[in-house]
C-alpha cells in the first residue's frame, strides 16, 4: 500500500468512526502539502478519496469543500480534460447528498474549469449532460435547462422529460410553453437536430398520456407533422422547425403572421423568435449587448439570480409558465 493509500485509509477509518471534522482538516493539510510540492497527482488522489468518503457519509459541506479544492488543483496542475479527470468529477457529483447547496457551486466550478482548459467555449458537453441529468432526477428544471441545452446528443431526451413533468403540474392548454423551453434553447445555440428530437419526444409523451387528445398526422415526401387542433402553438413549433429545415424566410414570416394572436397571448416568445429569425433566416434585429445569452438567461433559466424561483420536489411546486387560457380542453 502506497503512502497516499495509507493516508486515505486512515482518514476513511476516522470518517467511519464519525470524526468528520478531524478527517476533513487532516485531508486538507496533507493535500496542501502536496500542492506546495507541485505534486498534483498526489494532491488530487488525497482530495478525491477524502471527498468521496465524506460525501458517502452524508457530509456534504466538508466533502463539497474538498471537491472544490480538487477542481482548483485541476487548474493549477493543468490537468487534462479526459475520461479519468471527468470520471472523478462524475463520481463526486453523484455522491452528493440531496439538496446539498455546495453541489451547485461544484458544478459551476467544474464547468468553468472545462471552459478554461477545454475545447468548448461553453464548457464540456459531457459535464453539462451529467449535471443536467442529475438536476432532472432532483426536479430542478431551471438548473437542468442551463446544462442540458449545452449537453450531448443524449440531452434532448432528458430535457423533454423534465419539461413534460413540469407541464404535468400546470394547465392542459400550456403544453406548448413547456415544449418551447426544450426547443428554443437548442435553436438559439444552432442545434437544430436536438431541437427536433426534443419536440418529438415531448409530443410523444403528450399523446401517449392523453389518448383522447385529437392528433392529425400530416405527411409529405420530406417530412411528417403532427397537428394538434386544440394546441395551436404546439403546431407552430413543429412548423417552425420545418421552416428552418427548408431555410424558407417566407414560410417563417407566414407562420409568424398566422400565429401572431396566439404568440401575443404568450407574451414571452418575442425575443426568442427575433433571434431565431435572424439566426436562420437573416431577418436583422437591432443589437443591444449580447441578446442571445441575455434572452436565454432571462427567459429559460430563471434569470440566473438568487431571486429567481427555484422549483424543488416534493416540498415546493415549480412556478407555472403563465399564459392566457383558451376554451377548456379535457386532456385527462
Could you tell me the number of beta strands? 2
> What shape does the CA trace take?
elongated
Query: Rounded to an integer, what's the Rg over CA atoms?
Result: 23 Å
Please trace the helix and strand order, writing H or E for each element. HHHHHHHHHHHEEHHHHH
Query: Roughly what is the average pLDDT, rounded to an integer?
Result: 86
Parts with pLDDT < 50 across at least 5 consecutive residues: 301-317, 322-332
**Helix-and-strand structural type:** mainly alpha
Structure report:
There is one protein chain. The chain has 332 residues and is mainly α. It contains 16 helices and 2 strands. It has a two-stranded antiparallel sheet. A hairpin with a 4-residue loop joins strand 1 (216-219) and strand 2. It starts with a helix and ends in a 32-residue tail after the last helix.
Q: What are the defining features of this structure?
A:
elongated, 16 helices, two-stranded antiparallel ribbon, 332 residues, mainly alpha
SSE blueprint and pairings:
Layout: H1 3-16, H2 20-36, H3 40-56, H4 60-76, H5 83-95, H6 102-117, H7 125-137, H8 141-148, H9 155-167, H10 175-188, H11 192-209, E1 216-219, E2 224-227, H12 232-246, H13 249-258, H14 260-266, H15 270-281, H16 291-300
Antiparallel strand pairs: 1-2
Helix pairs in contact: 1-2, 1-3, 2-3, 2-4, 3-4, 3-5, 4-6, 5-7, 7-8, 7-9, 8-9, 9-10, 9-11, 10-11, 10-12, 11-12, 12-13
Q: In a nutshell, what does this entry contain?
A:
The chain is mainly α and 332 residues long.
